[in-house]
Amino acid sequence: MAEDRTLVIGAGPAGLAAARALKEQGLPYDHVERHSAVGGLWDIDSPGTPMYESAHFISSRTMSGFPGYPMPEDYPDYPNHRQILAYLRSFAADAGLADAITFSTEVVTIERGDDGAFTVTTRAADGTTQTRRYAQVIAASGVQWDPNVIDIPGYTGEIRHSVTYRDPSDFAGRRVLIVGAGNSGCDIACDAARSADHAAISMRRGYWFIPKHIFGKPVDVFAESGPSMPMWLEQAVFGRLLRVINGDPTRLGLQKPDHKLFETHPLLNDQLLHHLQHGDIAARPGIASADGTVITFTDGTTEDVDLVLLATGYRHTIAYAQDLYGDEQHPDMYLTAFARTPGLYGIGFVETNSGAYILMDMLSQMVAQHIADRTRRPGAWKAFERHVATDRPDLSGGINFVDSPRHTGYVDAHAIQKYLKAVSRRMGWALR
Asked: At the topology level of CATH, where does 6-145+314-427 sit?
């Protein structure tokens, strides 16, 4: 039988949250990280990270820190990636987590035995491998490492995914098209607007652009400080406010949103609108075809570009155990953290519309207490496993999220926090 020990994979924010929760429960665990330091994707020097120099948090420091460990008061409203990395490393040091991490060690495979234990093979930087058995495994290795690369038939210029992008010097002297309008895509498009000879951004649909500040406050602080409203009323009130602030997006070449506010992942960016207003970048709809370096869009307009940068997102793969976790876009896990296979967990796979660190911490506490129940309260452990197998809660918060791969399994932050608290009360678990 495997030693009653847990393996935590990854030392980014999710892995640190999981490790702190296990330590607080007094549970034995090992912790591995394939890079040489704490930070996960926030370490721009980590091989394969999607980080770029102009990256900042899209939720405010006020709403984004781990519970019990707020971000420093001297941080700006929206910290940059180096400040977030420093925060994570301080958190690991102050919580006494760093010394327990084995760095430069990647997980190669995880196999589940007939006895329910997991055989894990790891590989060190020098190529040596080691195999060990664990009663539990927490995958916290992140979801932004496997780029979703699309093909553009007929295009002969350079195509790169945004995972390769680091700083605006990449655009000097280039005619650039950014494909995709997530938060990173819009950030990078603003870099291109300032640095490229010519810049354009292609969006398949219209989006709601949410400014990072409203009435001088970070938008998430402003939203949380207001009265609680039903979702339909919140959509109507804030939608009206955004139309007043931003005006008609079609005058800038953008498409009108084909969905209500909040039905896609929040797009917090007012700088792209600034550059569109100043003619620094052109907005285009989806790509229809390409011939050489000339790309034709669905409205018949064209752009002659020598670099296409794909900000087309990432697949949520868990390469070392995909067969155990299921679908590569959204692994099948109850409440985004409890795999349908007993003993298998994941932290950091939640797609939501607010700061994720609070959710990571809540889920980590629940996972740790469930692991503790396996030996301390076996009846409760079995009862929760039955719950994992059958419970399919609606965590949309009344929002009809758009039909896209990213929004499959997407949850509303308030809805999932409320449900996590209810489940914890029912199980007798404490949440900070």
From this structure: FAD/NAD(P)-binding domain (3.50.50)
